[in-house]
Amino acid sequence: MKRLIYQVCLGGQAKSKLYEKCIESVSAYCEKYHIEHRVQREPILRIKPDIFMTNRSNESYEKHGGFLPIYEKENAFDLLDGYEQVAIIDADVYIRAEAGNVFEEFGFDTPFGAVVERQMPINQEYKHKITNYSRMQYAALQDVDWKWDNLGAEFCNMGVMFINSEQFKPYLNGQSAKQFLERYEFKRFIDGEGAWKWSTDQTLLNWWVKKTNMPVKHMNWRWNGLFTANTQIDKCDFVHFFLKDKLPNGGEDINSLLQMI
User: Fold this and answer.
1) Is the separation of the CB atoms in 177 and 236 below 8 Å?
2) Which of 108, 149, 154, 202 could form an S-S bond across to 158 if both were Cys, CB 3.0 to 4.6 Å?
3) 11 pLDDT tier (thresholds 50, 70, 90)
4) What is the bridge-based pairing of β-strands 85-89 and 93-95?
5) Cα torsion angle, 193, 65, 205, 13, sign
6) CA–CA distance, 77 with 157 (Å, rounded to integer)
7) Helix/strand number for the chain, H first, E second
8) Residue 32: is its pLDDT beyond 80?
9) 3-class secondary structure, 261
10) Contact (Cβ atoms closer than 8 angstroms) between residue 240 and residue 160
11) Which residue(s) pair with 218 in the sheet?
12) For the packed helices 201-211 and 124-138, what is the interaxial angle rounded to 10 degrees?
């Protein structure tokens, strides 16, 4: 069984103690379970917004040479032929040493898996954020069923996602990762149209998964514990230190962060 965990860590991220500590934990996890680990350190896809149409702020892409690094992790789609299962994990995810093999829970029944945010045990403040985020990102996308409830839309946090390669590949329609992201229907997300000005690949992928009716396994929340939002962070095997700029000391006092989890 060939399995891969893929991460992206570009530019200034590589100088961050937080990112490097998290990547180190993923590397140890992969060694423990005989999983191949790849860390992309240089841009490959270089997905760019249309400079004549984009609503994104210049600094969100110009400082990276005109491309959006938030779409680089889709490069993993070009590697599916070499592995039965692939996980794509953000560089700010820390894996506990005692964590079990997540691929065993993911199984082989579905092409895609991730954690639905509203199914996490989260605090009241983050519940409000989910509601507002849902309205801004997904309310205009009425051609799919978001299964709205009192919290908002049913969307996955794409900081940790899992793929069964053979089941997933048909949804790519034979396209490379770059061709996939350059589909016309994704242009509005890439350009940051309207409320998607600050969107990442999360909005694009959630809409695409729903639009294609792709079967999705809703993974247990412990595989993507949102730090400061999850009320049971001590029970999370994967701790996601998202929103780095809002972490104490910008997340660079890694020892203090680890004591907090």
Assistant:
1) no
2) 202
3) confident
4) unpaired
5) negative
6) 18
7) 8, 9
8) yes
9) coil
10) yes
11) 114
12) 70
- Render pLDDT for 181-196 as a digit per residue (tens, 0 to 9): 999 999 999 999 999 9
In angstroms, what CA-CA distances link 231 with 15, 96, 226, 234, 255?
30, 17, 9, 8, 20
Phi-psi region of 194 (alpha: psi -120 to 50; beta: other; left: phi over 0): left
Q: 90-119 burial string, b = 16+ CB within 10 Å, else e?
A: bbbbbbbeebeebbeebeeebbbbbbbbbe
Q: How far apart are CA 234 and CA 230, in angstroms?
A: 9
- Exposed/middle/buried for residue 253 (C-beta within 10 Å: 0-12, 13-18, 19+): middle
pLDDT at 165 over 80: yes
For residues 30 and 111, what is the distance between their CA atoms, to the nearest angstrom? 21
Q: Compute the distance between CA of residue 123 and CA of residue 257 in angstroms, rounded to an integer.
A: 19
Angle 33-77-162 (CA atoms, 0-180°, nearest 5)? 45
- Residue 259 carries which side chain, given as an amino acid letter? Q
> What's the CA gap between 174 and 81, in Å, rounded?
12
Structure tokens, 12: 């200034």
Amino acid at 242: F
Tokens of 50: 């249309």
